[in-house]
């Protein structure tokens, strides 16, 4: 085989003609998935579109039925109405992370209609019209006024509050110490009393044992 022939992609067998649609010929952001369209090996349809080039690696082989999951079956056969999140971000002029934040933070974000790919490389598709309506509403919001910074407190005030706090803590701990000293004194008195009782009881027991032994010898 000639070395140059290794870089030439094999010719594909043309598939059946696609039906005519009213799609704007200048619209090149929505990626189409049609199981009957004889997709290339990497499963990328309409590879001349910008989002197809960006998502080529992460889509995987979408021609595999196992790599396609319809979450909104009503859009099956209406793939022209869907757009993936990366292409949607580029279409409205925001970053992909901004779209991800919209999806996480807003319950009214368009529900996913189609998942392609497997595992972590899955690509999410939502209805294009719903996405544009949501993005238009988000981008038309006026930013809220900046919250004014809290006024800085005087250093003398901070030191005075610190002193007052320390004084309160010292008073509390001294009171606790006094209670503990009193409790310790009570404990020591009780311990002394019970040790005396123990000695007296042991002494009486010894006397009784000795008396019993002396009585037994008689």
Care to describe what's here?
Residues 192-202 have a biased composition (Basic residues). It comes from Streptomyces hygroscopicus. Residues 1-66, 192-218 are annotated as: Disordered. This is Helix-turn-helix domain-containing protein. This protein is an alpha+beta fold and 218 residues long. 47% of the residues lie in helices and 6% in strands. It folds into two domains: 28-138, no CATH class; 158-218. The protein has six helices and four strands; from the N terminus they run ααββααββαα. Strands 1-3-4-2 form a four-stranded antiparallel beta sheet. The chain is elongated and about 120 Å long.
Describe what is shown at a glance.
This is Helix-turn-helix domain-containing protein. With 218 residues, the chain is α+β, with helices and mostly antiparallel strands.
Keywords:
single chain, alpha+beta, 2 domains, 4-stranded antiparallel β-sheet, 6% strand, disordered N terminus
Distance between the termini: 129 Å
C-alpha geometry: elongated
How many structural domains?
A: 2
The overall average pLDDT, rounded, is 76
Please state roughly what percent of the residues sit in beta strands, choosing from under 5%, 5-15%, 15-25%, 25-35%, 35-45% or over 45%.
5-15%
Topology pattern, helix = H, strand = E: HHEEHHEEHH
How many separate helices? 6
What is the helix content?
Answer: 40-55%
Taking all Cα atoms into account, the compactness measure Rg is 42 Å
Number of strands: 4
Largest sheet: 4 strands, antiparallel
Structural class: alpha+beta
Spatial strand sequence of the major β-sheet: 1-3-4-2
Low-pLDDT runs of 5+ residues are 1-11, 24-62
């Amino acid at each position: 085989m000639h070395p140059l022939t290794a870089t030439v992609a094999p010719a594909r067998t043309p598939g059946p003609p696609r039906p005519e649609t009213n799609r704007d010929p200048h619209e090149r952001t929505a990626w189409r998935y049609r199981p009957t369209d004889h997709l290339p090996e990497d499963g990328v349809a309409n590879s001349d579109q910008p989002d197809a080039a960006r998502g080529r690696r992460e889509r995987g082989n979408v021609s595999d039925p196992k790599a396609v999951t319809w979450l909104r079956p009503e859009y099956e056969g209406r793939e022209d109405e869907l757009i993936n999140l990366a292409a949607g971000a580029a279409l409205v002029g925001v970053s992909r992370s901004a779209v991800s934040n919209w999806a996480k933070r807003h319950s009214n974000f368009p529900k996913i209609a189609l998942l392609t790919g497997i595992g972590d490389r899955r690509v999410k598709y939502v209805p294009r019209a719903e996405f544009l309506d949501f993005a238009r509403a988000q981008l038309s919001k006026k930013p809220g006024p900046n919250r004014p910074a809290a006024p800085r407190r005087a250093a003398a005030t901070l030191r005075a509050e610190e002193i007052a706090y320390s004084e309160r803590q010292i008073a509390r701990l001294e009171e606790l110490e006094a209670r503990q000293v009193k409790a310790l004194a009570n404990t020591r008195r009780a311990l002394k009393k019970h040790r005396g009782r123990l000695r007296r009881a042991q002494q009486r027991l010894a006397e009784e044992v000795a008396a019993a032994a002396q009585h037994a010898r008689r």
